């Protein structure tokens, strides 16, 4: 059996031959991260499909389940998830339609709306988490040292780019 060629390695060769060798490593890094994202997202989406959840809706449910009261202002959820409030509102609509969350007025601030996880939302996110832990997080395809190195490298990239 012949070994398949790595398309990203071939792209590096093309980049170098085109005269861009000074940025070839950066292109390979970005392209590799983007491809890894596609691979992992496909695995996550496959695991979440039986729960009718996207990863963004799962993250919102998990955030609410981790919160002390099971609810939080929509703007706070947006900040914690690092996405625009419009994206959170869209996720809330989908989760509301499935009975997994509900909106409620803030008890002391009439300008603020809370998003609150329901009992069915809580059981759904617990089941989905068990599935993700078993099918994705327990074996991402790297050993512990590789995972640690990757996390350190991505932490550095995020920090350098102002993510925190």
List keywords for this structure.
MarR family transcriptional regulator, mainly alpha, Arc Repressor Mutant, subunit A, 2 domains, WH_DNA-bd_sf, three-stranded antiparallel β-sheet, HTH_MarR-typ, 164 residues, 7 helices, MarR/SlyA-like, elongated
Task: Write structural notes for this entry.
- By secondary structure, this protein is mainly α.
- It folds into two domains: 1-51, no CATH class; 53-131, Orthogonal Bundle (Arc Repressor Mutant, subunit A).
- It is 66% helix and 8% strand.
- It has seven helices and three strands, in the order αααβααββαα.
- It has a three-stranded antiparallel β-sheet.
- α2 packs across α6, α3 packs across α6 (119-137) and α4 packs across α5 (85-97).
- The termini are far apart.
- The model has no long low-confidence stretch (mean pLDDT 97).
- GO terms for molecular function: DNA-binding transcription factor activity.
- This is MarR family transcriptional regulator.
């Amino acid at each position: 059996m012949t070994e398949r060629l790595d398309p990203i390695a071939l792209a590096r060769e093309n980049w170098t031959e085109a005269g861009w060798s000074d940025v070839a490593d950066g292109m390979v890094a970005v392209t590799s991260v983007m491809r890894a994202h596609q691979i992992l997202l496909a695995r996550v989406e496959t695991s979440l499909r039986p729960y009718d959840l996207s990863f963004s809706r799962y993250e919102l449910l998990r955030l609410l389940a981790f919160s002390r009261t099971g609810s939080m202002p929509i703007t706070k959820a947006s900040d914690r998830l690092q996405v625009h409030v419009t994206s959170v509102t869209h996720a809330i609509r989908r989760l509301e339609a499935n009975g997994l969350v509900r909106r409620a007025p803030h008890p002391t601030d009439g300008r603020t709306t809370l998003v609150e996880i329901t009992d069915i939302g809580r059981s759904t996110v617990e089941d989905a988490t068990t599935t993700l832990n078993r099918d994705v997080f327990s074996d991402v395809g790297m050993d512990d040292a590789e995972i640690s190195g990757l996390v350190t490298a991505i932490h550095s990239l995020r920090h350098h780019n102002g993510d925190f």
